[in-house]
Design a protein that fits this description.
Two copies of one chain form a homodimer. The first copy, chain A, has about 325 residues and is of the alpha/beta class. Chain A has one domain: Alpha-Beta Barrel (TIM Barrel), CATH 3.20.20.70. Chain A contains 14 helices and eight strands. Chain A has an eight-stranded parallel barrel, surrounded by eight helices. The longest helix of chain A has 17 residues. Chain A starts with 15 loop residues before the first helix and ends in a 9-residue tail after the last helix. At the A-B interface, helix 8, helix 9, helix 10 and helix 11 of A face helix 8, helix 9, helix 10 and helix 11 of B.
Chain lengths: ~325, ~325
């Protein structure tokens, strides 16, 4: 899935190992799932298909089609199985289809309809965990780990996450030791693709450096993913620090749509166009078609008939105008 | 002007020297100048005074009251002298009043009305330089350096800048060697307080690291300032990298208002509330009264009768709720 693009302007102080990692960054579009789940209007299947088809042709690596939850409780996600059935027959080579599962029933559904990559997680906030799953963090962990192992045994890619890893809209601070203890349990269970999700949008870059650095210290071979919301304007700053901290999987949503409905102050995910634009300005992932992503985001914006938070949607891209580094001939 | 606040969560990989620098960060509110200069409605003197009075009581270190330009060409800045006369008699101890000057006449006016700190600069983009000043970069540099020295001789603080240091809305990329050659001319003239201004909002964090790192390599004793616009959503990411690159002076505008009228796509400055909020989340400058800054930004928003771009204006602060690091007891 990784692309190998040369970096125009290697930072003088960043070590080579991290730069090599930066060359392997993966974009994971979660708009069809996290982008939509807080929206009250249920988007028709055909409209979702149109957006996902667009993302499929953009060069994005992974697309999260939906979550396997109770369709009566979350009508927005009722067509997740249908989306997988459709796109398993209609996706370009190289695109990975991911799905979020919360319980064993969801896993069964996902295995039945051809999910490539399973995402599942545990919240580090007890209040968020109970509101989201009805379980304590420990109970949830005890169920998620066997589920993850079952999916791995079935030959699937699996990414496990710690939700509310940087703070909780209800509880406030989240103990970093609790986040790391969940990560340790994942690592001990042999699961090495680990995401930290900033469900409440509370993360600040020094936390990002601290937590991802601590996880890499636990296991240097870990594959790290991040998921930030832009509630307080720090989404791209957190992605930038994640990049420098060795994170290679970045989750974002078209137009900056989104927010967890079980968060106190839901706010948009980092916008995929803004994320790709900032990476391309750094010389990374220039293979992704930003114009295609912008077209999709405009379709989504038109559907919801309101301005979405993404910056590039308003300002337009400068990648072609300024180039990949903007450092001029001297760089 | 510097505050000495302990840092809650020292990054494990950042060296001590930079952490010491981070403890000395200075906020420079440029809302009354750069925030307003693109606004078509001329704000009455009494309204400006109300906003500036608010900023004065917030704990912000430096406030830029205006620029000394031709009042017929820029009516918004016609009352700059009057503002200095008023606030020289009505400012709390510790607040520095800065003014932007473009030419010798402006410097004379500034010296006559009691400017504490003079800001002046040269654009690294020839097109921007000509549109803004009618001069080439070299001509502008030849006039700015003697002006800076005159102000220093008069016992004033002086900050010199390179405008369009990260790219130009007209020209696209700006040669980093040209930026550094202007900086070298400043240093050779004995001027050591140097700002890089991202007039077009083109900066990305790796450029920030590269340029400020290169300047510190030229002269480790330099005092560095930054000025970012949030055109492409990277304003706070750039401020964060500037912080880690040893920059101590940060320019921002209330509500995220602003934009240079001589830029192709003017967009807001980094919002002062967002900047202070992100610093306070890192444990820095907790002495600044964020609630007072938010009150000012709301007054400005009400005056212009439109939503301003600042995030904290919408989402509210989480500093008191989450604390300064959000890292929990384990940090």
């Amino acid at each position: 899935m990784a692309s190998e693009i040369s970096i125009a302007s290697a930072s003088r102080e960043t070590n080579r190992f991290l730069w090599d990692l930066m060359n392997k960054i993966i974009i994971h579009e979660v708009g069809p799932r996290d982008g939509l789940q807080a929206e009250k209007t249920t988007v028709p299947l055909t409209e979702k298909m149109r957006w996902i088809e667009g993302v499929c042709t953009s060069g994005i690596d992974i697309i999260q089609l939906g979550s396997f939850v109770n369709p009566e409780k979350v009508p927005q996600m009722a067509d997740t199985d249908a989306l997988f059935q459709h796109f398993n027959k209609n996706k370009p080579a190289g695109v990975t289809l991911s799905g979020l599962v919360l319980n064993e029933k969801g896993l069964e559904r996902g295995l039945a309809c051809g999910v490539d990559m399973f995402c599942m997680g545990v919240s580090a906030s007890e209040t968020h965990s109970r509101k989201n799953t009805g379980m304590t963090s420990t109970e949830a962990l005890g169920r998620i780990i066997p589920m993850a192992r079952q999916a791995m045994t079935a030959g699937k890619n699996v990414q496990v996450s710690v939700q509310s890893a940087f703070g909780c809209g209800y509880e406030g601070p989240v103990n970093r030791e609790k986040v790391l203890s969940i990560v340790k349990a994942y690592l001990e269970a042999g699961i090495h693709n680990i995401s930290l999700a900033d469900t409440a949008g509370h993360a600040q870059p020094l936390q990002v450096e601290d937590l991802f650095g601590s996880i890499r210290a636990l296991d240097p071979s870990v594959i790290l993913a991040c998921h930030f919301h832009n509630t307080y304007g720090l989404g791209l700053a957190n992605c930038y620090e994640a990049l420098k901290s060795g994170v290679t999987f970045f989750e974002s949503a078209f137009g900056g749509l989104g927010g967890c409905p079980f968060t106190k102050l839901p706010a948009g995910n980092v916008s995929t166009e803004d994320l790709v634009h900032s990476f391309q300005r750094m010389g990374l992932r220039k293979d992704i078609k930003l114009d295609v992503l912008l077209k999709v985001a405009r379709q989504v914006e038109k559907y919801f008939d309101r301005d979405l938070p993404g910056f590039i949607l308003k300002s337009g891209s400068i990648v072609d105008f300024v180039g990949e580094s903007g450092l001029g001939e001297g760089s």
